């Protein structure tokens, strides 16, 4: 499951970079980039970086079973849903899709709340210090 988060993150970054290049072409042609394109680009970039981070955080916190499936599915849905509705709703005039932003945002929030739950209920392994590392004396 964490492979899906990491893969979605890297794919999202590739798509975000392609959109960024498209924006550069628009600017180079002397036109302004539409705000909806900028917004979707920014959201996809940030959420894709967070997807990669989540791919490492999920196993580190010991999220398993149905919670792991829920975190992964909810996060990936939100990662693509938020920029997707901005691009489709505003960019392609499908404004009837805009209210689904609450669904995609809710999916992201639910994913983060599951991670919060695991963070506060999971004991850290080890002493929390840097074992085997001597402090510098210079």
From TrEMBL:
Listed name of the protein: DUF8059 domain-containing protein
Keyword Transmembrane helix: yes
Organism: Halobaculum magnesiiphilum
InterPro entries for the chain: DUF8059
Domain of life: Archaea
Coiled coil: none
Any Pfam family matching the protein: DUF8059
Keyword terms of this UniProt record: Membrane, Transmembrane, Transmembrane helix
Segments passing through the bilayer: 42-64, 71-89, 101-120
DUF8059 domain: residues covered: 1-138
KW Transmembrane (keyword) present: yes
């Amino acid at each position: 499951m964490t492979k899906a988060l990491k893969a979605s993150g890297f794919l999202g970054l590739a798509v975000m970079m392609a959109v960024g290049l498209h924006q550069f072409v628009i600017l180079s042609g002397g036109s302004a980039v539409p705000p909806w394109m900028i917004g979707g680009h920014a959201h996809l970039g940030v959420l894709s970086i967070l997807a990669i981070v989540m791919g490492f955080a999920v196993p580190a916190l010991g999220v398993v079973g149905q919670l792991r499936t829920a975190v992964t599915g909810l996060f990936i849905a939100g990662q693509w849903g938020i920029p997707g509705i901005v691009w489709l709703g505003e960019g392609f005039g499908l404004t009837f899709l805009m209210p689904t932003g609450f669904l995609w945002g809710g999916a992201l929030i639910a994913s983060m709340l599951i991670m919060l739950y695991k963070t506060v209920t999971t004991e850290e392994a080890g002493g929390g210090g840097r074992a085997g590392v001597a402090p510098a004396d210079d």
